Protein backbone atom coordinates (compact mmCIF):
# COMPACT_ATOMS: atom_id res chain seq x y z
CA UNK A 1 0.00 0.00 0.00
CA UNK A 2 1.19 3.55 -0.77
CA UNK A 3 0.75 5.90 2.16
CA UNK A 4 1.26 9.64 1.72
CA UNK A 5 1.49 12.02 4.68
CA UNK A 6 1.48 15.77 4.26
CA UNK A 7 3.03 17.59 7.21
CA UNK A 8 5.93 16.49 9.41
CA UNK A 9 5.06 17.62 12.90
CA UNK A 10 3.06 16.21 15.83
CA UNK A 11 0.25 14.48 13.89
CA UNK A 12 2.33 13.30 10.91
CA UNK A 13 5.05 11.86 13.15
CA UNK A 14 2.58 10.05 15.41
CA UNK A 15 0.90 8.50 12.37
CA UNK A 16 4.22 7.09 11.12
CA UNK A 17 4.95 5.52 14.51
CA UNK A 18 1.54 3.83 14.62
CA UNK A 19 1.81 2.55 11.08
CA UNK A 20 5.29 1.09 11.54
CA UNK A 21 4.32 -0.66 14.76
CA UNK A 22 2.19 -3.03 12.68
CA UNK A 23 3.03 -2.54 9.04
CA UNK A 24 6.55 -2.92 7.67
CA UNK A 25 5.42 -3.41 4.07
CA UNK A 26 3.61 -0.26 3.01
CA UNK A 27 5.64 2.53 1.48
CA UNK A 28 5.40 5.85 3.32
CA UNK A 29 6.16 9.18 1.66
CA UNK A 30 6.04 12.34 3.77
CA UNK A 31 6.00 15.91 2.45
CA UNK A 32 7.06 18.88 4.54
CA UNK A 33 7.41 22.46 3.42
CA UNK A 34 9.77 23.12 6.36
CA UNK A 35 13.46 22.25 6.24
CA UNK A 36 14.23 21.38 9.85
CA UNK A 37 14.67 18.22 11.85
CA UNK A 38 11.48 17.30 13.71
CA UNK A 39 11.10 19.90 16.43
CA UNK A 40 8.57 20.71 19.16
CA UNK A 41 6.58 23.85 18.47
CA UNK A 42 5.53 23.99 22.13
CA UNK A 43 9.14 24.67 23.14
CA UNK A 44 9.82 27.45 20.63
CA UNK A 45 9.33 30.27 23.15
CA UNK A 46 11.85 28.64 25.51
CA UNK A 47 14.41 28.62 22.72
CA UNK A 48 13.55 32.26 22.00
CA UNK A 49 14.45 33.18 25.59
CA UNK A 50 17.54 30.94 25.52
CA UNK A 51 16.08 28.80 28.31
CA UNK A 52 16.87 25.79 26.13
CA UNK A 53 19.43 25.41 23.33
CA UNK A 54 18.34 24.83 19.75
CA UNK A 55 19.09 21.09 20.09
CA UNK A 56 16.58 21.03 22.97
CA UNK A 57 13.78 21.51 20.43
CA UNK A 58 14.57 18.22 18.77
CA UNK A 59 11.54 15.98 18.88
CA UNK A 60 12.87 12.71 17.44
CA UNK A 61 16.34 11.33 16.60
CA UNK A 62 17.87 12.70 13.41
CA UNK A 63 17.72 9.13 12.05
CA UNK A 64 13.95 8.85 12.64
CA UNK A 65 12.88 8.81 9.00
CA UNK A 66 15.45 6.28 7.88
CA UNK A 67 14.68 4.02 10.87
CA UNK A 68 10.99 4.19 9.99
CA UNK A 69 11.78 3.76 6.30
CA UNK A 70 9.97 6.93 5.35
CA UNK A 71 10.84 8.81 2.16
CA UNK A 72 10.83 12.39 3.46
CA UNK A 73 10.69 15.31 1.03
CA UNK A 74 11.70 18.43 2.97
CA UNK A 75 11.14 21.91 1.62
CA UNK A 76 8.41 20.49 -0.61
CA UNK A 77 4.96 21.98 -0.59
CA UNK A 78 1.90 20.01 -1.69
CA UNK A 79 -0.10 22.39 -3.87
CA UNK A 80 -2.83 20.32 -5.47
CA UNK A 81 -4.87 17.31 -4.39
CA UNK A 82 -6.69 15.21 -6.99
CA UNK A 83 -9.13 13.11 -4.99
CA UNK A 84 -10.32 11.01 -7.97
CA UNK A 85 -6.88 10.08 -9.30
CA UNK A 86 -5.59 9.87 -5.71
CA UNK A 87 -2.47 11.94 -6.21
CA UNK A 88 -0.86 15.12 -4.88
CA UNK A 89 1.19 17.58 -6.93
CA UNK A 90 3.97 19.58 -5.29
CA UNK A 91 5.49 23.01 -5.92
CA UNK A 92 8.59 21.34 -7.46
CA UNK A 93 6.36 19.61 -10.04
CA UNK A 94 6.62 16.17 -8.47
CA UNK A 95 3.47 14.03 -8.29
CA UNK A 96 2.83 11.50 -5.52
CA UNK A 97 0.15 8.84 -5.86
CA UNK A 98 -1.44 7.31 -2.79
CA UNK A 99 -3.76 4.57 -1.63
CA UNK A 100 -4.19 6.35 1.70
CA UNK A 101 -3.49 10.01 2.41
CA UNK A 102 -3.12 11.81 5.74
CA UNK A 103 -3.54 15.58 5.73
CA UNK A 104 -1.59 16.84 8.74
CA UNK A 105 -0.93 20.38 7.55
CA UNK A 106 -1.55 22.01 10.93
CA UNK A 107 -2.59 25.62 11.26
CA UNK A 108 -1.53 29.08 10.15
CA UNK A 109 -1.09 32.18 12.27
CA UNK A 110 -3.87 34.72 11.71
CA UNK A 111 -2.58 38.06 10.56
CA UNK A 112 -4.89 41.13 10.66
CA UNK A 113 -5.06 43.01 7.37
CA UNK A 114 -4.19 46.37 9.00
CA UNK A 115 -0.73 45.17 10.00
CA UNK A 116 1.76 45.35 7.15
CA UNK A 117 3.41 42.00 6.44
CA UNK A 118 7.10 42.11 5.67
CA UNK A 119 7.84 45.16 7.84
CA UNK A 120 11.11 44.81 9.71
CA UNK A 121 10.31 44.06 13.35
CA UNK A 122 6.86 42.55 12.71
CA UNK A 123 6.67 38.79 13.30
CA UNK A 124 4.47 35.82 14.04
CA UNK A 125 5.52 32.90 16.25
CA UNK A 126 4.64 29.66 14.51
CA UNK A 127 7.75 28.00 13.10
CA UNK A 128 11.43 27.63 13.91
CA UNK A 129 12.18 30.08 11.08
CA UNK A 130 9.87 32.61 12.78
CA UNK A 131 11.81 32.24 16.03
CA UNK A 132 15.15 32.70 14.28
CA UNK A 133 13.77 35.90 12.79
CA UNK A 134 12.51 37.14 16.17
CA UNK A 135 15.88 36.32 17.77
CA UNK A 136 17.58 38.49 15.14
CA UNK A 137 15.12 41.32 15.84
CA UNK A 138 15.53 41.00 19.61
CA UNK A 139 19.22 41.92 19.27
CA UNK A 140 18.36 45.39 17.99
CA UNK A 141 15.20 45.92 20.07
CA UNK A 142 14.56 47.47 23.47
CA UNK A 143 10.77 47.33 23.58
CA UNK A 144 8.35 44.69 22.36
CA UNK A 145 4.58 44.52 21.91
CA UNK A 146 2.66 41.27 21.68
CA UNK A 147 -0.76 41.45 20.03
CA UNK A 148 -3.00 38.76 21.52
CA UNK A 149 -3.30 37.28 25.01
CA UNK A 150 -3.77 33.60 24.13
CA UNK A 151 -1.36 30.79 24.86
CA UNK A 152 1.11 31.71 22.13
CA UNK A 153 0.89 35.43 22.95
CA UNK A 154 1.58 34.78 26.62
CA UNK A 155 4.47 32.45 25.87
CA UNK A 156 5.93 35.07 23.53
CA UNK A 157 5.51 37.87 26.10
CA UNK A 158 7.20 35.88 28.87
CA UNK A 159 10.08 34.94 26.55
CA UNK A 160 10.62 38.50 25.28
CA UNK A 161 10.54 39.80 28.84
CA UNK A 162 13.17 37.22 29.76
CA UNK A 163 15.25 38.48 26.83
CA UNK A 164 15.35 41.81 28.69
CA UNK A 165 12.87 43.69 26.50
CA UNK A 166 10.28 46.05 27.98
CA UNK A 167 7.20 44.06 27.01
CA UNK A 168 3.54 45.04 26.60
CA UNK A 169 0.62 42.81 25.65
CA UNK A 170 -2.41 44.18 23.80
CA UNK A 171 -5.52 42.05 24.37
CA UNK A 172 -8.94 42.65 22.85
CA UNK A 173 -10.88 40.79 25.56
CA UNK A 174 -11.05 41.53 29.28
CA UNK A 175 -8.73 38.68 30.23
CA UNK A 176 -5.63 36.84 29.15
CA UNK A 177 -5.70 33.17 28.08
CA UNK A 178 -9.44 33.56 27.49
CA UNK A 179 -9.77 30.14 25.81
CA UNK A 180 -8.06 28.49 28.72
CA UNK A 181 -9.04 30.19 32.00
CA UNK A 182 -11.67 32.43 33.58
CA UNK A 183 -11.66 36.04 34.84
CA UNK A 184 -10.41 35.14 38.35
CA UNK A 185 -7.50 33.05 37.10
CA UNK A 186 -6.70 35.75 34.55
CA UNK A 187 -6.50 38.22 37.43
CA UNK A 188 -3.88 36.03 39.18
CA UNK A 189 -1.91 35.65 35.95
CA UNK A 190 -2.01 39.38 35.21
CA UNK A 191 -0.68 40.12 38.68
CA UNK A 192 2.24 37.76 38.06
CA UNK A 193 2.89 39.38 34.70
CA UNK A 194 2.87 42.79 36.40
CA UNK A 195 5.41 41.51 38.92
CA UNK A 196 7.63 40.61 35.94
CA UNK A 197 6.92 44.16 34.60
CA UNK A 198 4.90 42.94 31.61
CA UNK A 199 2.14 45.49 31.04
CA UNK A 200 -1.21 44.23 29.75
CA UNK A 201 -3.66 46.53 27.93
CA UNK A 202 -7.12 44.92 28.13
CA UNK A 203 -10.08 45.63 25.82
CA UNK A 204 -7.62 47.21 23.43
CA UNK A 205 -6.64 46.61 19.84
CA UNK A 206 -3.89 47.94 17.62
CA UNK A 207 -5.21 50.29 14.97
CA UNK A 208 -2.03 51.47 13.33
CA UNK A 209 1.61 50.56 12.97
CA UNK A 210 4.17 53.36 12.69
CA UNK A 211 7.44 52.87 10.87
CA UNK A 212 10.50 54.69 9.70
CA UNK A 213 11.05 53.47 6.18
CA UNK A 214 10.24 49.79 6.48
CA UNK A 215 11.29 49.54 10.12
CA UNK A 216 8.76 49.33 12.97
CA UNK A 217 8.80 52.23 15.44
CA UNK A 218 5.53 52.09 17.40
CA UNK A 219 1.96 50.87 17.48
CA UNK A 220 -1.16 52.95 18.12
CA UNK A 221 -4.19 51.54 19.88
CA UNK A 222 -7.93 52.22 19.73
CA UNK A 223 -7.74 53.64 23.24
CA UNK A 224 -5.38 56.35 22.08
CA UNK A 225 -2.02 55.07 23.32
CA UNK A 226 1.14 55.17 21.29
CA UNK A 227 3.42 52.32 22.38
CA UNK A 228 6.96 52.68 21.03
CA UNK A 229 8.47 49.33 20.05
CA UNK A 230 11.03 47.84 17.74
CA UNK A 231 9.43 44.39 17.84
CA UNK A 232 5.80 43.33 17.38
CA UNK A 233 4.72 39.71 17.67
CA UNK A 234 1.28 39.11 16.19
CA UNK A 235 -0.45 36.29 18.11
CA UNK A 236 -4.09 36.73 17.17
CA UNK A 237 -4.81 33.02 17.06
CA UNK A 238 -4.54 30.33 14.42
CA UNK A 239 -6.68 28.91 11.65
CA UNK A 240 -6.62 25.40 10.21
CA UNK A 241 -4.43 25.16 7.14
CA UNK A 242 -7.05 23.72 4.78
CA UNK A 243 -5.66 25.24 1.54
CA UNK A 244 -5.06 21.82 0.03
CA UNK A 245 -8.71 20.80 0.00
CA UNK A 246 -9.93 24.11 -1.45
CA UNK A 247 -10.64 22.62 -4.90
CA UNK A 248 -12.00 19.32 -3.63
CA UNK A 249 -15.36 18.12 -2.32
CA UNK A 250 -13.84 17.15 1.05
CA UNK A 251 -16.13 18.62 3.68
CA UNK A 252 -14.94 21.27 6.10
CA UNK A 253 -16.45 23.68 8.59
CA UNK A 254 -13.70 25.56 10.45
CA UNK A 255 -11.35 22.58 10.08
CA UNK A 256 -11.61 19.47 7.93
CA UNK A 257 -14.51 17.33 9.14
CA UNK A 258 -13.46 13.91 10.39
CA UNK A 259 -15.31 10.93 11.82
CA UNK A 260 -14.23 8.89 14.86
CA UNK A 261 -11.66 7.12 12.65
CA UNK A 262 -10.08 10.42 11.55
CA UNK A 263 -11.46 9.83 8.08
CA UNK A 264 -12.59 12.79 6.01
CA UNK A 265 -15.65 12.69 3.77
CA UNK A 266 -13.41 10.87 1.23
CA UNK A 267 -12.84 7.27 2.24
CA UNK A 268 -9.08 7.05 1.64
CA UNK A 269 -8.24 10.50 2.95
CA UNK A 270 -7.67 11.16 6.63
CA UNK A 271 -6.93 14.34 8.58
CA UNK A 272 -5.40 14.84 12.03
CA UNK A 273 -4.05 17.60 14.24
CA UNK A 274 -4.70 21.34 14.02
CA UNK A 275 -6.22 21.01 10.55
CA UNK A 276 -8.94 18.57 11.67
CA UNK A 277 -12.24 18.99 13.40
CA UNK A 278 -13.00 16.23 15.90
CA UNK A 279 -15.39 15.40 18.71
CA UNK A 280 -14.70 17.28 21.96
CA UNK A 281 -15.52 15.16 25.02
CA UNK A 282 -16.19 18.11 27.33
CA UNK A 283 -18.52 20.13 25.09
CA UNK A 284 -20.04 17.26 23.11
CA UNK A 285 -19.45 19.27 19.93
CA UNK A 286 -17.04 19.01 17.02
CA UNK A 287 -14.18 21.50 17.09
CA UNK A 288 -10.55 22.07 16.17
CA UNK A 289 -8.44 21.42 19.26
CA UNK A 290 -5.17 23.07 18.07
CA UNK A 291 -3.10 21.42 20.80
CA UNK A 292 0.00 19.25 20.56
CA UNK A 293 -1.36 16.42 22.75
CA UNK A 294 -4.54 16.18 20.67
CA UNK A 295 -2.54 16.25 17.41
CA UNK A 296 -0.43 13.32 18.64
CA UNK A 297 -3.47 11.27 19.69
CA UNK A 298 -5.25 11.96 16.42
CA UNK A 299 -2.15 11.22 14.35
CA UNK A 300 -1.73 7.86 16.13
CA UNK A 301 -5.35 6.94 15.44
CA UNK A 302 -5.24 8.09 11.83
CA UNK A 303 -2.16 5.91 11.31
CA UNK A 304 -3.87 2.85 12.79
CA UNK A 305 -7.04 3.38 10.81
CA UNK A 306 -5.15 3.92 7.55
CA UNK A 307 -3.69 0.43 7.85
CA UNK A 308 -7.03 -1.12 8.80
CA UNK A 309 -6.39 -1.50 12.53
CA UNK A 310 -9.70 0.25 13.16
CA UNK A 311 -9.78 2.17 16.37
CA UNK A 312 -12.22 4.93 17.22
CA UNK A 313 -11.21 8.28 18.77
CA UNK A 314 -12.79 8.87 22.20
CA UNK A 315 -12.60 12.56 21.48
CA UNK A 316 -10.39 15.47 22.45
CA UNK A 317 -10.08 17.14 25.84
CA UNK A 318 -8.65 20.62 25.48
CA UNK A 319 -5.76 20.73 27.90
CA UNK A 320 -3.00 23.14 28.50
CA UNK A 321 -0.24 23.83 30.93
CA UNK A 322 1.92 26.86 31.37
CA UNK A 323 4.14 28.46 33.95
CA UNK A 324 3.78 32.21 34.44
CA UNK A 325 6.34 33.84 36.71
CA UNK A 326 7.04 30.43 38.24
CA UNK A 327 3.33 29.77 38.98
CA UNK A 328 2.10 26.55 37.35
CA UNK A 329 -1.23 26.63 35.54
CA UNK A 330 -3.23 23.77 34.05
CA UNK A 331 -6.61 23.88 32.39
CA UNK A 332 -8.83 21.22 30.87
CA UNK A 333 -12.07 21.41 28.91
CA UNK A 334 -14.86 23.90 29.56
CA UNK A 335 -13.56 26.58 31.93
CA UNK A 336 -16.08 29.33 31.14
CA UNK A 337 -19.39 27.46 31.04
CA UNK A 338 -22.31 29.28 29.42
CA UNK A 339 -25.16 30.19 31.76
CA UNK A 340 -28.44 28.34 31.59
CA UNK A 341 -27.02 25.10 30.21
CA UNK A 342 -27.00 23.15 33.46
CA UNK A 343 -23.34 23.56 34.43
CA UNK A 344 -22.33 23.66 38.08
CA UNK A 345 -19.13 25.33 39.26
CA UNK A 346 -17.02 24.66 42.37
CA UNK A 347 -14.12 27.02 43.13
CA UNK A 348 -11.51 27.44 45.81
CA UNK A 349 -9.33 30.51 46.07
CA UNK A 350 -6.38 31.11 48.39
CA UNK A 351 -5.28 34.54 47.23
CA UNK A 352 -2.23 34.87 49.46
CA UNK A 353 -0.93 31.45 48.56
CA UNK A 354 -1.58 32.20 44.88
CA UNK A 355 -3.81 29.14 44.58
CA UNK A 356 -7.01 28.96 42.54
CA UNK A 357 -8.97 25.84 41.66
CA UNK A 358 -12.13 25.55 39.63
CA UNK A 359 -14.10 22.46 38.65
CA UNK A 360 -16.94 22.67 36.12
CA UNK A 361 -19.50 19.88 36.29
CA UNK A 362 -22.56 18.86 34.32
CA UNK A 363 -24.76 15.94 35.28
CA UNK A 364 -22.17 15.02 37.96
CA UNK A 365 -19.41 14.62 35.39
CA UNK A 366 -16.39 16.90 35.22
CA UNK A 367 -16.38 19.03 32.08
CA UNK A 368 -13.60 21.47 32.90
CA UNK A 369 -10.82 22.29 35.35
CA UNK A 370 -8.53 25.19 36.20
CA UNK A 371 -5.64 24.54 38.58
CA UNK A 372 -3.41 27.49 39.36
CA UNK A 373 -0.61 27.48 41.89
CA UNK A 374 -1.22 23.84 42.93
CA UNK A 375 -1.47 21.34 40.13
CA UNK A 376 -1.09 18.07 42.03
CA UNK A 377 -3.82 15.60 41.10
CA UNK A 378 -4.17 17.10 37.63
CA UNK A 379 -3.66 13.60 36.20
CA UNK A 380 -6.38 12.02 38.36
CA UNK A 381 -8.82 14.81 37.48
CA UNK A 382 -8.05 14.50 33.76
CA UNK A 383 -8.68 10.81 33.92
CA UNK A 384 -12.08 11.45 35.56
CA UNK A 385 -12.97 13.69 32.59
CA UNK A 386 -11.74 11.21 30.01
CA UNK A 387 -13.67 8.36 31.59
CA UNK A 388 -16.78 10.52 32.00
CA UNK A 389 -16.90 9.28 35.60
CA UNK A 390 -19.90 10.09 37.82
CA UNK A 391 -18.24 12.04 40.67
CA UNK A 392 -21.35 12.70 42.79
CA UNK A 393 -20.05 10.65 45.73
CA UNK A 394 -16.94 12.86 46.16
CA UNK A 395 -17.95 16.05 44.32
CA UNK A 396 -17.62 18.16 47.50
CA UNK A 397 -13.95 17.16 47.90
CA UNK A 398 -12.73 17.81 44.36
CA UNK A 399 -11.10 21.18 45.15
CA UNK A 400 -9.81 20.28 48.60
CA UNK A 401 -6.06 19.88 49.16
CA UNK A 402 -6.77 16.39 50.46
CA UNK A 403 -8.35 15.25 47.20
CA UNK A 404 -6.34 12.65 45.37
CA UNK A 405 -6.09 9.05 44.42
CA UNK A 406 -6.92 8.17 48.03
CA UNK A 407 -10.32 9.91 47.73
CA UNK A 408 -11.25 7.50 45.01
CA UNK A 409 -10.65 4.51 47.27
CA UNK A 410 -14.09 3.54 48.42
CA UNK A 411 -15.71 5.88 45.89
CA UNK A 412 -15.19 3.80 42.78
CA UNK A 413 -15.06 0.03 42.71
CA UNK A 414 -11.73 -1.49 43.81
CA UNK A 415 -10.99 -3.19 40.45
CA UNK A 416 -11.46 0.18 38.75
CA UNK A 417 -8.78 1.97 40.78
CA UNK A 418 -5.86 0.76 38.71
CA UNK A 419 -7.22 2.75 35.77
CA UNK A 420 -6.32 6.05 37.45
CA UNK A 421 -2.66 5.15 37.63
CA UNK A 422 -2.43 4.97 33.88
CA UNK A 423 -5.08 7.18 32.28
C1 LIG B 1 4.77 28.93 19.85
C2 LIG B 1 3.79 27.83 20.05
C3 LIG B 1 3.60 27.30 21.32
C4 LIG B 1 2.70 26.26 21.51
N1 LIG B 1 2.56 25.76 22.78
C5 LIG B 1 1.71 24.72 22.98
C6 LIG B 1 1.57 24.14 24.27
O1 LIG B 1 2.18 24.57 25.23
N2 LIG B 1 0.74 23.09 24.40
C7 LIG B 1 0.04 22.57 23.36
O2 LIG B 1 -0.69 21.58 23.52
N3 LIG B 1 0.15 23.11 22.12
C8 LIG B 1 0.95 24.16 21.91
N4 LIG B 1 1.07 24.70 20.65
C9 LIG B 1 0.22 24.17 19.57
C10 LIG B 1 0.87 22.93 18.93
O3 LIG B 1 2.18 23.23 18.56
C11 LIG B 1 0.05 22.47 17.74
O4 LIG B 1 -1.23 22.08 18.21
C12 LIG B 1 0.70 21.30 17.02
O5 LIG B 1 1.95 21.68 16.50
C13 LIG B 1 -0.18 20.79 15.88
O6 LIG B 1 0.50 19.76 15.22
P1 LIG B 1 0.14 19.37 13.72
O7 LIG B 1 0.98 18.19 13.40
O8 LIG B 1 -1.33 19.27 13.57
O9 LIG B 1 0.53 20.63 12.83
P2 LIG B 1 1.78 21.59 12.79
O10 LIG B 1 2.65 21.44 14.00
O11 LIG B 1 1.25 22.95 12.49
O12 LIG B 1 2.61 21.05 11.53
C14 LIG B 1 2.10 21.04 10.24
C15 LIG B 1 3.28 20.93 9.29
O13 LIG B 1 2.79 20.77 7.96
C16 LIG B 1 3.50 21.64 7.09
N5 LIG B 1 2.66 21.92 5.93
C17 LIG B 1 1.54 22.66 5.88
N6 LIG B 1 1.01 22.68 4.65
C18 LIG B 1 1.83 21.93 3.89
C19 LIG B 1 1.83 21.57 2.51
N7 LIG B 1 0.85 21.98 1.70
N8 LIG B 1 2.84 20.80 2.04
C20 LIG B 1 3.83 20.36 2.87
N9 LIG B 1 3.87 20.68 4.18
C21 LIG B 1 2.89 21.44 4.69
C22 LIG B 1 3.73 22.87 7.97
O14 LIG B 1 4.74 23.71 7.48
C23 LIG B 1 4.12 22.20 9.28
O15 LIG B 1 5.47 21.84 9.29
C24 LIG B 1 1.96 25.75 20.42
C25 LIG B 1 2.15 26.27 19.14
C26 LIG B 1 3.05 27.29 18.95
C27 LIG B 1 3.25 27.85 17.57
Summarize the structure in words.
The protein is α/β, with parallel strands linked by helices and 423 residues long. The protein has 3 domains: 2-108 and 239-306, FAD/NAD(P)-binding domain (3-Layer(bba) Sandwich), CATH 3.50.50.60; 122-236, FAD/NAD(P)-binding domain (3-Layer(bba) Sandwich); 327-421, FAD/NAD-linked reductase, C-terminal dimerisation domain (Enolase-like, domain 1, 2-Layer Sandwich). 21% of the residues lie in helices and 29% in strands. It has 9 helices and 26 strands. The strands form 7 sheets. Strands 3-2-1-7-19 form a 5-stranded parallel β-sheet. It has a 5-stranded parallel β-sheet with strand order 9-16-10-11-12, with helices on one face. A 5-stranded antiparallel β-sheet has the order 22-23-26-25-24. β13 and β14 (215-221) form a beta hairpin. α1 (10-22) runs parallel beside α7 (292-306). The longest helix has 15 residues, at 292-306.
Any ligands, ions or cofactors bound here, and which?
flavin-adenine dinucleotide
Strand order of the largest sheet: 3-2-1-7-19
User: What number is the mean pLDDT?
Assistant: 91
Q: What best-fitting shape do the alpha-carbon axes yield? A: globular
N-to-C CA distance: 33 Å
CATH topology of the largest domain: FAD/NAD(P)-binding domain
Poorly predicted regions: none
**What CATH architecture label of the largest domain applies?**
3-Layer(bba) Sandwich
- The portion of residues forming beta strands comes to 25-35%
Structural class: alpha/beta
| Largest sheet geometry | 5 strands, parallel
CATH class of the largest domain: Alpha Beta
- Total number of distinct structural domains: 3
User: What multimeric state do the chains show?
Assistant: single chain
What is the number of helical segments per DSSP (H or I, 4+ residues)? 9
Instruction: Determine the fraction of residues in helical runs and give it as a percent range.
Output: 10-25%
**Total strand segments:** 26
- Radius of gyration equals 23 Å
Amino acid sequence: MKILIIGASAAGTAAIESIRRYDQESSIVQLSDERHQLYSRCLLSYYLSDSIPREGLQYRDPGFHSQMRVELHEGTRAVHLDTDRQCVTCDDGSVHEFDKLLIATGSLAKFPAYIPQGMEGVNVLRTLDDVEMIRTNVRRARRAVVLGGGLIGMKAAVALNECGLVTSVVVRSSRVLSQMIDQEASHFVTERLGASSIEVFFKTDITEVESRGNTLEAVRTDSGQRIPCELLVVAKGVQPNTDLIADTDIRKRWGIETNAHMQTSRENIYAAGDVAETFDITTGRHAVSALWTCAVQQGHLAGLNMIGRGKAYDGAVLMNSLSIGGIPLISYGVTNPPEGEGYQVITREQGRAGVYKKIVLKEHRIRGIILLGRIDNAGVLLSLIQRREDVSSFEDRLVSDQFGYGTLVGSVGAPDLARYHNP
